[in-house]
Every structure is written in C-alpha cells, then in structure tokens.
Design a protein that fits this description.
Blueprint: H1 2-23, H2 28-51, H3 56-85, H4 94-104, H5 109-127, E1 139-142, H6 149-160, E2 164-168, H7 169-173, H8 179-189, H9 194-197, E3 201-205, H10 214-225, E4 228-232, E5 237-239, E6 244-246, E7 249-253, E8 258-263, H11 268-276, H12 288-294, H13 298-302, E9 306-309, H14 315-323, H15 329-338, E10 343-346, H16 348-361, H17 366-385, E11 389-394, H18 396-400, E12 406-409, H19 417-424
Parallel strand pairs: 1-8, 1-9, 2-3, 3-8, 10-11
Antiparallel strand pairs: 4-7, 5-6, 11-12
Length: about 425
C-alpha cells in the first residue's frame, strides 16, 4: 500500500515537473532541451551498462528497464505538451464552424451545417467528463468530383485543431494501404501522441470504390464502430545496446476517431430514379436502401448514420471560388506575380470564360487550376524574362482564344543595396 501511494505521488511530481518545464520559456525551447537531456542521459546510461561486468542476460534486463522508463517519461512529456499547446473550450458552437466554412468554402449550405453539427458533437464527445458515453456518428458525403468534399473535411479539422489524415480507398483495395497504416499516419500527424490521435479525424476518400469488394468493407467495420487496433510501426527504434532495429508495438482505440467518408458514387442516381420512379431524382434523395443496392453491406452503411450530398458547382459558384474565399485562386496568382513586382488583374468577362472552360472539363473546382495554368504559364515566362513589365491584364480573349494578355510597362525596379553588392562581387542572387 505504501509503495502504491509513493508511486502515485512520484507520478504527480514528475507530471508537475514536466508541466513546469513546458510552461517555462515558451514551451518549445524548453521541450527541445528536455528531450535532449533525456536522450543524453539514456545514451550515457547505456554505455555504463556495457562497461559493467555483468552477463548478457543482466545487461539486457537493465537496458530493458531503462528503455521502458525513458519511453514512459517521453510519452508523459508529449501528453503534457499537447495538453498545453492544444488548449480549447469544452464545446465549439455549430455557428462558429459554419461561419468559418463560409469564409473558406463557396455554397453547399446544407452540408456545411451537417458537418458543423458532426464536428461540434465530436468535440463534445471527446471532451465529455460526466461519465456518459456519447455515440459516435460517422459521416458519408456524396458529390461529384471537385465539389469540395475533401476541402470541407480538412477545413473542419483545422478549425477544431484536431489531427487529420486522408486515406485513399483505391490504395486500400490494391494493398498499398491499410487501417494500420492510416492510424500510424494519424499518430505521426499528432506529434507521436497516441491519446491525441485517438481523438482525430480520418477522411476516407473514394469510398464508393469499395462497393464491389465486400472483404475490404468488412475490414473497416470494427474500426468504424470503435475497437483496439494493434500493429507494429513501420519506423522502428534502434536498441543502443545491441545496435539493432526493434519493432515498436502500438495500440490505438478508434472509438473516438471520427470517420468522414466520401465519393462521387457514379451510377447511384440511376438506382435512386428506379426506386422513386422519378426521372429527375438526384443524389439528395438517397436512402440506405439505395446504398445497399449500390453494393455496400448493411453493416457498413449502418456505421455511417449521417449522409449528406453536395451539389454540382455552377458557373457563378466557380467565379465566386476564384475571387471570394480567403485563399482564392485569383489572390494566389496575384501573389505569385507580385513576387516579380507585377500587378495582375482579371477582367470580369475573363473570369466568366475561365468558369465556362472549367465546367466543360467536368472537374469542378479542380478544373479551375487546369484552365488557369494553361494560359498563365506564358504570363509567368513573360514577366520573368522582361523586367520592365509592371502590370498584366487577363482579358476574355486571352482565356478563350489564347491571345496574349495586355501588358503595361515601366522602368525596371531599383535594386536594393544587397543586390547591388552581390552583383559587384560577381554573384547572381537568382542562382541557387
């Protein structure tokens, strides 16, 4: 009994000591020094074990105990570190998430609210302290390519400040990925903190490709519901005593991991039309029966109770995506040109033509980058070779017919003191 109390008190003392180290000198510098000290002490202790006159069995036992203690201290440090750096309120209102969506994403009001509710409830679930076990509700998003499925989930994870990982169903089908690999990447994105990874978000893309492969669906049934997944990490740790790479066993519980699955579900509309006997039916009318008819197991569908659909993006939506969001494409290209001291301007008609071309490619928002790069490559070449260009105006003709944009010229920008000095010394600051 006394030993137990002593051990618990020591654990509290060590925890308080680590928290004090983290709070001192803005966390990171102290953390780096602390980890460096631990590793240095560990290496010194290993060398002392090697020099002692003990048999191999005793050396191995001593080293095993030492490695266990070091690993426990490092994990305790990581948990304290993330507890401080990821301090957040016990609940995040849906309204705040929706407002953040509106800044970053164009349209899709219905799915924004559904994802905001899922994200808010997920945060309540991982922060619950009253002993009530809240049910996990995974999300399924249906929508055409380029409609914003991945971006919506990523934006939500960033706002909630939770670890996030994207998994590809095609890679899972052909053996290039597995639930163990996905969880290992989630741990990596959590800074090695397993407890934090167990609260993260996994985005399973192109899940519709799993419809014809029942064994692949069965492998995900337990992780989707919540279970302990045991695996060996790909990255092994080196045993300093034997100089061998030792496998690291890891256990992750998926009960509090939110799965967001998505796919284009090509052909599902035909199943919905036959069921409803309505030739104008869309994905928004999807039911559990339709997903099962598409090829999914009832158990798989049942583990994703929240289903939402994204609407195809119209030309006006694409123009808004080009110009309105915080990191819109127009601002990005303007910043690229500003690096060469050139002002970039798009005529309104040019933006309409870009949207029309993107719709013809049937790639949604992804098509916008393809269209922009098609004519902007010549603009970048022009402004990088002709230093007298001061302004570039993208016209409708330059987008539609491939004609040259309008350029305005002026005197070359004056060189800074350091640029003049490097030129005189015979160096070219553009050389790398």
């Amino acid at each position: 009994m006394k030993r137990t109390l002593c051990f618990l008190n020591m654990k509290k003392v060590v925890s308080l000591l680590l928290v004090g180290i983290l709070l001192f000198s803005s966390v990171k510098p102290a953390g780096a020094n602390f980890i460096g000290t631990i590793v240095g002490w560990y290496k010194g202790s290993v060398e002392r074990i090697k020099e002692t006159e003990l048999d191999n069995a005793n050396k191995a036992f001593s080293h095993g105990v030492l490695r266990y203690v070091i690993r426990k201290v490092q994990r305790l440090y990581l948990s304290c570190y993330h507890a401080i750096t990821r301090r957040s309120p016990a609940a995040i209102p849906m309204e705040n998430i929706v407002k953040h969506f509106d800044k970053m994403v164009t349209g899709q009001a219905k799915t924004k609210k559904i994802l905001a509710a899922a994200g808010s409830n997920h945060y309540k679930k991982i922060s619950a302290k009253n002993g009530v076990k809240l049910q996990k509700n995974n999300v399924l998003i249906l929508g055409p390519t380029g409609s914003g499925k991945t971006f919506l989930a990523q934006t939500m994870a960033e706002f909630l400040n939770l670890p996030f990982v994207i998994a590809d169903s095609i890679a899972i089908l052909y053996g290039g990925d597995s639930i163990e690999n996905i969880l290992e990447r989630l741990i990596k994105n959590s800074g090695g903190d397993v407890k934090l990874a167990e609260k993260g978000i996994i985005f399973l893309d192109e899940v519709d490709k799993l419809a014809e492969y029942k064994p692949a669906q069965k492998r995900f049934l337990k992780p989707l519901e919540g279970t302990d997944v045991h695996f060996e990490c790909i990255e092994k740790e080196r045993d300093l005593l034997s100089d061998q790479l030792l496998p690291v066993r890891q256990t992750v519980n998926t009960s509090n991991i939110l799965f967001v699955c998505s796919g284009a579900f090509v052909g599902l509309e035909n199943i919905i039309k036959r069921r409803t006997n309505n030739a104008d039916a869309t994905l928004s009318e999807v039911s559990t029966e339709d997903l099962i008819a598409f090829g999914f197991l009832p158990e798989f569908v049942g583990r994703m109770p929240i289903v939402s659909t994204l609407d195809p993006l119209s030309a006006s939506d694409l123009v808004t995506i080009l110009t309105k969001p915080k990191n819109c494409l127009v601002k990005q290209y303007q910043e690229l040109c500003a690096c060469d001291n050139v002002e970039l301007e798009f005529e309104e008609e040019a933006l309409d033509k870009i949207a029309e071309k993107a719709i013809k490619k049937q790639l949604g928002a992804r098509g916008l980058v393809s269209v922009l790069e098609d004519f902007m490559k010549d603009v970048f070449y022009k402004i990088s070779t002709d230093r007298s260009v001061r302004k570039c105006i993208i016209t409708a003709e330059s987008v539609e017919k491939g004609e040259s944009p309008m350029f305005e010229y002026g005197p070359p920008p004056s060189e800074s003191f350091w640029q003049k000095l490097t030129h005189r010394l015979g160096f070219n600051h553009n050389d790398r």
